[in-house]
Amino acid sequence: MDGRTFPALDRWESGAHADSVVVGAGLTGLVTALLLARAGMSVTVLEAHHVGALTTGRSTAKLSLLQGGVLSSIRRHFSARVADAYVAANREGQAWMLRYLAENDVPVQRRDAFTFARTAEGVADLDREFEVARAAGLDVERTDEPGLPFRTHGALRLADQAQLDPIGVVLALTADLRARGVRIVERTRVRDVNDEAPATVVTDRGEMTADQIVLATGTPILDRGLYFAKLVPLRSYAAAYRVPGDAVPRGMYLSIDAPTRSLRTAEADGRTCLLVGGNGHIVGRAESAKARLDELDAWTRESFPGAERTHWWSAQDYRSVNRVPFVGSLPRGRGRIFVATGYGKWGMTNAVAAALTLSAEILGGQLPWADTLHHRVTHPATVGAGARFNAGVVREDLKGWVHAETARPEEPAEGQGTIRRRSTGPVAVSRVDGACRAVSAVCTHLGGIVTWNDAERTWDCPLHGSRFRPDGARIEGPATEDLAAEPG
What is the rounded CA–CA span in Å between residue 136 and residue 376? Predict the structure, then answer.
């Protein structure tokens, strides 16, 4: 991952049984596994890549109750009671994480969190967020001086929040789980789940059984519940910079207006560096992901003269159409399959809150805020938001197939990908590091035509966010199968 040593993990055993199988070794899966193991359950964690490989390991890891415009967005969809419950859930998730970090000597930095307006138009959004946050019990303050070296139009401040290194907590959780006898099996992709008693987990290496199964995979890999139609898959970018002198701001910052700008500090090689994130978009729908990254880089260099980029990365998050995560029993899962998804880029608190919710439901406990959040009435605004997103899905599907039918058979340049039309169907052809590869251009989830991501050199589906390597290997998203290889 980043050079630090993980404990030796477990080998796959076909036919094994566990009380609970957790699919996904990000923060949600690891904390859920820990809570169940503490209660005496036998637990196996299955991960398609390696522990903390995707969203958790790439997070900017702000452990904050001030979350941009999230609360006012929730309030547009639901009553004040739901907004209050969301704050209560995140407050409990934050408190649990801070205790765990302290007990396991994982470094954490306490910082004030700021939500700021980059434009005059953003002030009205600040006003709405301030009112909802105060009503929900957050001690936010208005300020005209957030401590940034560029012009802003006001900000909200919430004192004494926290930031951390996400790999540090993943390391601690992994070691804790191994010490408790939890089996963690990497590079094992779950392809299906049978909900009979006991439930059967079907992987690319064989099958095992469990009494309960938790899908902690970013977006559910089962289509029951149609979560793919209720989630907006978001890709965003981040970079680390060396900044001369003492120009690095000490707080944690997020703009309330678009394009998003996220700022925080981090320690690297004995120096304080600046992490800058933003310029997100729906997966597969950016004309050029590289241009998004370049624009973020240009803004940083302009805002922080002398800034030198050392690293960059990206991450994928899923936002529910109503801004509240989906957590609990999977529909038509006979009470044996559970799911958590839709954190909207605030996984450090929401993932822990989800793990607390799932473990309580499995173990027979009750959390008042969880009952409010996950047994709510659908609001007309939610229906409208879902309809707009899915109308966009239909447009992208149609656009992709029209493009596939009319595409010219061009040879891709280095680092590029193109779609070709063949009698057997659309083909995605890319050239990376001199190697030309051809795979089916049809996403294995619901048949969308993939698009080329020129920053990460991947094929991304613009319908529901599945992503694939140039050779067709599935990376993430609701798809469970690779893109088939095609003749060059």
Answer: 18
In sequence order, which residues have a C-beta less than 8 Å from that of residue 383 and are 6 or more positions away? Answer: none
**Whole-angstrom distance, CA of residue 232 vs CA of residue 321:** 7
HSE on the CB side for 467, CA within 13 Å? 23
Return the CATH superfamily for domain 385-476.
Answer: Rieske [2Fe-2S] iron-sulphur domain (2.102.10.10)
What pLDDT, in 10s, does the model give residues 319-372?
Answer: 999 899 999 999 888 889 999 999 999 999 999 999 999 999 999 999 999 999
Query: Domain limits of the chain?
Result: 109-162+231-320, 385-476
58 CB-near residues (< 8 Å, 6+ apart): 166, 238, 313, 314, 315
Contact in structure between 477 and 464 (CB atoms under 8 Å): yes
Determine the angle formed by the axes of helices 70-77 and 80-103, rounding to 10 degrees: 140
- Rounded to whole angstroms, the Cα distance separating 426 from 321 reads 31
What's the length of the chain? 488
Q: How would DSSP label each residue in 283-352?
A: TT--S-HHHHHHHHHHHHHHHSTT-EEEEEEEEEEEEETTSS-EEEEPTTSTTSEEEEE-BTT-HHHHHH
pTM, to two decimals: 0.94
- The one-letter amino acid code at 145 reads E
β-pairing verdict for 206-215 and 261-268: unpaired
In this model, does residue 378 exceed pLDDT 50? no
Task: Report residue 413 as tokens.
Answer: 């340049």
CB-based contacts of 386-389 (< 8 A; 24+ apart in sequence): 386/229, 386/230, 386/321, 386/322, 389/229, 389/232, 389/321
Give me the amino acid identity at 13.
E
Using a 10 angstrom Cβ sphere, with 0-12 exposed, 13-18 middle and 19 or more buried, the burial of residue 149 is: exposed
Domains 109-162+231-320 and 385-476 equal at CATH topology level = no
CA-CA distance, 46 to 487, in Å (whole number)? Answer: 33
Show the tokens assigned to 101.
């970090």
pLDDT 10s digits, 402-412: 666 666 677 89
Beta bridge partners of 234: 282, 317
Burial class (CB in 10 A: 0-12, 13-18, 19+), 106: middle
Topology of domain 109-162+231-320 in CATH is D-Amino Acid Oxidase; Chain A, domain 2 (3.30.9)
Q: Is the dihedral of CA 365, 370, 374, 375 positive or negative?
A: positive
